[in-house]
Amino acid sequence: xxxxxxxxxxxxxxxxxxxxxxxxxxxxxxxxxxxxxMDDINTQVRDQLRQSNLYRFVAIIGLLFAVLGLSMxxxxxxxxxxVILGGAYYSFFAYLLVESYIQANxxxxxxxxxxxxxxxxxxx
Length: 124
Description:
This protein has 124 residues and is mainly alpha-helical. Helices cover 77% and strands 7% of the residues. It contains 4 helices and 2 strands. It has a two-stranded antiparallel ribbon with strand order 1-2. Helix 3 packs antiparallel against helix 4. The longest helix has 41 residues.
């Protein structure tokens, strides 16, 4: 899915949902339905992007305070530098798990949009 975000207002305009191969094969009748679908999903895509950004923000803040903060406390109490490196290592991989969740959530969202496109807009 490709989209364009307005710089100042933050409005989302979906520019491409299906690959060029599939959209090139749409008949003229289906092309108007596809364009109507693209206009209808703009707010849902914007909400999905905002949710992903919220997850990233919460994960970064949470990992900074919980993991790295705890590592700093343990470092000052024990004087062991490996504690800080272990905390940074753990927080990096924990953030990768958050990013994988965001990507899986986004793939599910796009799959649901595709199913709705086929069901509601391309009825046979």
